[in-house]
Design brief:
Strand content: 5-15%
Number of helices: 16
Cofactor: Zn(2+)
Radius of gyration: 18 Å
Number of domains: 1
Pfam families: A_deaminase
Structural class: alpha/beta
CATH topology: TIM Barrel
InterPro entries: A_deaminase (IPR028893), A_deaminase_dom (IPR001365), Ado/ade_deaminase (IPR006330), Metal_Hydrolase (IPR032466)
Helix content: 40-55%
Keywords: Hydrolase, Metal-binding, Nucleotide metabolism, Zinc
Protein name: Adenosine deaminase
Length: 330
Amino acid sequence: MGVVGLPKIELHCHLDGSVRPETLFELSKKEGLNLGVESIEEFRKLVEVPENCKSLDEYLEKFDIANKVMQTKDNLERITYELMEDVAQDNVKYIEIRFAPLLHINKGLTFEEIVESVICGIKRAEKEFDIYGNLILSCMRTMPVEACFQVVEKGAKYIGKGVVAIDLCSSERANFPEVFQEPINLAKKLGYRITIHAGETGIGENVLKSIELLDAERIGHGVYSKDCPEAYKLLKEKNIALEVCPTSNVHTKAVVSYEEHPMKAYFEDGIKVTINTDNMTVSNTDLNKEYTILEDKNIFTEEDYKQMYNYSVEASFASEDIKNKLRAYI
């Protein structure tokens, strides 16, 4: 496929799951975290999942150290800038970075300081590298509904200034769309675009409810969409893109292997599949690795890649001007 030289788009990338290990190690020591390791090789075992990771919940434990150091403006801006730099070197032309602002208030930062630090990192990288970026604000499903309202309301002033969308993430439970319907519906009214983590861990009906109740324009993962015929039908009818993250899905045991992943069947049936990393550090991956694995396993071809690139352009929350620039790369 020669994917290394091809332009790429990343629509599903968590900031706290994609911190350079070297930076994370450095900042951990600077912040005085006693982790009991002395080398970067030992440290990597603390922030990367093993191949025998057993579940999504175990996977999420690997974010702990990143969230402990992402509590200052300088650290947040640096980490964001470095992520943009890293993906630009992989020929990523556009990225939507998502993060949960309320995870970064533990040392007194205001909501505004947190969001503005990340936006600053994006804007600084855009000036230095051939890449565009936008920000998705995530609400944690493990937090109260009131916290989601807070993110939606406080983040609204940044729409069009770096922020493009709202997201619901973290552990997936049945019927979560009903719980968060009011704040997400408010987000839509305020001008946010909507992407929702759903159907990642075996609950296809969550995909249906995310579309019907939350007006989701994209679905994060959506592995189990096939288990809910109504959801599957809506994905096709409404041209809703799936933000598929193959390696992450293998690690969280959403699927047992790349070959068993339904992404190829979805793609061949006309569902708009896009390929993403989810968490570059936690899963020790990047888009080059993702596409190379999929090619080596004869899951997707170069022609499939080009189609998925176009799906990513159209499904992105970028401005029409940026979309036109992205289209010109292919």
